[in-house]
Amino acid sequence: MEEEFYNAFATPITIAQHTMLENEMGTMQKPPKLMNIEEYKGWEERFENWVQANYFDAWECVETKYVRPMNDDEGVDEKKKYKNEKMMISFKEISWFYCNTVEIVKNKKSLLKKEFDLFRGLRTESTKQIIERYCNLLMNMKRLSITKDNEELIEKLADALPHET
Predict the structure, then answer these.
(1) pLDDT by residue (tens digit) across 81-109?
(2) Residue 88 burial by CB count (10 A; 0-12/13-18/19+): exposed, middle or buried?
């Protein structure tokens, strides 16, 4: 039997459910994970909330634009502010990475859809090579959750195969 965790209302949840919740919302030690690229906007808000809740001093560095003093006689407060600023820069880089990943995936989806629309067999290809290239295209589309109905898939492959006259 699966081990179960209990929340404040004594409702049992499985370890898998607990892990999914931790990944989605984050913990004190780690930020929420972006589980699906299409959920970026919601993740971005959860990520900002997590930073504000766990590293508020670092979050304030974003709003106050901390400037490091030029002299080497920094006090403890100045060193703490500097550390918080660097931490926030790291958090922003994580967010920027995910933001760019969203754009890359969006562009890749667009290219795969065009590739599917334009898919044809080449004169120099054997039937086996056409089918292998078609299956590879379908696998890449599936990875990015691009779906086509069966009729469209069959028609595309049939049109791409060589026709004997």
Answers:
(1) 777 777 777 777 777 676 667 777 788 88
(2) buried
